[in-house]
Design goal:
By secondary structure, this protein is mostly helical. It has 15 helices and no strands. α6 runs parallel beside α10 and α8 runs antiparallel to α15. The longest helix is centred in the last third of the chain and has 29 residues.
């Protein structure tokens, strides 16, 4: 039993590794394809794989989909279409490291919304965690220069990613409500497919689909990685972790994402890492750890 449990913990390390690699991969893919096309291809492939998995497990229920179609559509609009549109466009203007550090505050913002609008308990850990995370993001996007805030000359990519965080927070809260009636696997599969169709429609003016057959082998492999590794496989690993070790412990692995993102961006994409990035990453991760730990202990 102990050996099996150790194997689960080791397997769970792959999830933040896959997610962390998505930042550098997306950054490079965007050098050959426009942002909405990239997002549409990624989630169309992942959605088809996820739907096949749901059918194989016997969780594809047309009646449930018909009864909850509007809620599932809203998940697609906020979590797949809106979030990934802002994420991919934002990644054109900022670094993979900055992207990882901004996006990782999602658990903090979700916790704050749950407290403010859904009556969940608040604690001093959540307050300090939120403050630390936001401080870390400010350090990164201003590069340690507070004059940037006074001059309102923030990087447009960082601002778009902050917008993506707000959309993901909305998606996370809606998911809690939707999954009272729809299984996590089915809701994810359907929302991915619907979101991919919305992304595909929005991407038509980019004329990126015509360029898809001519992309380099590296970009083609990175697209497959984004769809299969960073979306489909990472989701399955995370769900296995939730089942075997519990949601709180599994969610804690998300905190490792910025570390893997920084390492991958430096090792494979040659992005520079600075002291400012280190300080920002430390603040963000400390804040997220405090917030998630508070949630896991009932807000004490």
């Amino acid at each position: 039993m102990a050996k099996n449990r150790a194997g689960i913990y080791l397997l769970m390390l792959l999830a933040p590794l896959f997610w962390g690699g998505a930042f550098g991969s997306t950054k490079h893919v965007l050098t050959e394809l426009p942002p909405l096309t990239v997002a549409a291809v990624r989630f169309l492939l992942a959605g088809l794989l996820m739907s096949g998995w749901a059918c194989w497990r016997g969780e594809w229920q047309w009646r449930t989909i018909r009864e909850s179609w509007f809620a599932l559509l809203m998940l697609a609009v906020f979590g797949i279409f809106g979030y990934n549109a802002l994420f991919n466009i934002g990644m054109q203007y900022t670094s993979a490291i900055n992207g990882a550090l901004v996006i990782v505050i999602n658990p903090v913002t979700t916790s704050l919304v749950a407290v403010l609008f859904f009556g969940e308990r608040w604690s001093w850990r959540q307050g300090i965690g939120a403050a630390l995370s936001m401080s870390g993001v400010l350090v990164v996007i201003t590069r340690g220069d507070m004059d940037v805030l006074r001059g309102l000359s923030l990087n447009r990519g960082d601002l778009l990613l902050l917008g993506a965080v707000l959309l993901w927070t909305t998606y996370a809260i809606l998911s809690k409500l939707v999954m009272r009636k729809v299984s996590p696997l089915l809701s994810t599969a359907v929302s991915m497919l619907l979101g991919a169709l919305l992304l595909a429609a929005a991407s038509l003016p980019e004329q990126g689909w015509n360029r898809l057959p001519g992309v380099s082998l590296q970009v083609m492999l990175e697209l497959m990685y984004l769809a299969v590794g960073a979306t489909f496989i990472a989701f399955l690993i995370f769900n296995i972790g939730v089942r075997e070790i519990g949601a709180s412990k599994a969610s804690a692995y998300i905190n490792l994402m910025p570390v893997s993102a920084v390492l991958i961006a430096v090792l494979f994409y040659g992005e520079p890492v600075t002291l400012v990035h280190g300080v920002g990453m430390l603040c963000v991760m400390s804040g997220v750890l405090l917030t998630t730990r508070a949630a896991a202990t009932g807000g004490k």
